[in-house]
Fold this sequence. Notes:
The protein is an alpha/beta fold and 432 residues long.
Amino acid sequence: MISNFSDKSNFEHITPLQEPKDLDPLIEKIGDSKYVLLGEASHGTHEYYTWRAEISKRLIKEKGFSFVAVEGDWPDCFKINRWIKSQKGTPSSIAEVLQEFNRWPTWMWANWEIAAFSEWLKDYNRHLEYKKKIGFYGLDVYSLWESMETIVKYLEKEDPETAALARQTAECFEPYRRNDSYVTAYRGLKQKCRNEVVQLLREVRQRADRYEDEPEAGLNAELNSLVLKNAEKYYEAMAHFDHSSWNVRDSHMVETLNTLMDYHEEDAKVIVWEHNTHIGDARATDMAASGLHNVGQLVRQQHKKDGVVLVGFGSYEGSVMAGEFWGAPMQNMELPKAIDGSIEKLLHTMDSRNKLLLFEEGSDLNEKLKKSIGHRAVGVVYDPHRERGNYVPSKMAKRYDAFLFLDKTQALHPLHLKPDGSKIPETYPFGI
């Protein structure tokens, strides 16, 4: 247990967090960093989305950040990207765009909080030249069928030679599509099909500069192909019931992030929205003992010289949107008071205000929070009655560069979409 936590010597690095201007110390800490990763302790909390949006708005307006990359599927998020950039043929409202997010858990991106942020981005982009417009992209690996359809349809129109290879690749997976079982698909794949996935990515990358009938068409084709390549690795790990699937997934998200940074101009800066379990450095948790790495760790290792700031989030009590099991109806669930011995309980005990913690090297706060303490992580599948199992032992000052503590939070506001029950994929093995 961490003792004497409420010393006045710590207050310099723990400040009240009530309104956007209270983010000033965090914005100052970010400085000229090019990578800012913003977490969340659940995928269903209103305040995590709204505070991330406020931070992102300030980084875009004040620091010139170029795009937002999120823990979502590439094809779906690319529809948001096209809409906020006012591309031809996009729906008139963001609600229409989000209606197409029909994969469970639908509430994760099809919610009023994302709709509001998307509308702000569209308005901000309105008077900018296309290359300067802020983007919104998905980093995740799960959109096998959607990515395949996108590639085939696009290449049939733009690149018939490569389209033939795309059709061959699609045919390899087709027998398994009825069950939408990615693991089954991998087990049934012939080596020839696996080779074709890699060859398709190679071809698309080599020809990407020809796919510019509309802005970012080449980028879209390349990253849909990247999904296919890395999905193959992910399914292999899943088929062996092996935790290495986590490493494959997070490595894919970083590879996608790096591709996006290479695509944008040299001075590009990125804001990443993902669960704490992805953006908090895995080396400061018990994940490392299991041989797991994550996005935060890899980005720190690969881009330290460009400036990397990892920002975690957490709350003491309230409510959260989640499901009782995979594919279950979403529910507004109780988020119980944090358990004794957790960072959330410790910060609540100081006082019930929201707080911003900055981890500055050499500070008393840093020294106290280099020791391991429980830190709540809620997935899309959640049982409030088994709360004790939701805490990740974490060295907070090493896991993050800053932490937003929100004492009482509420569930986010979904667009009340029902997932297509016939297409619930074998994804999110850890529920986060």
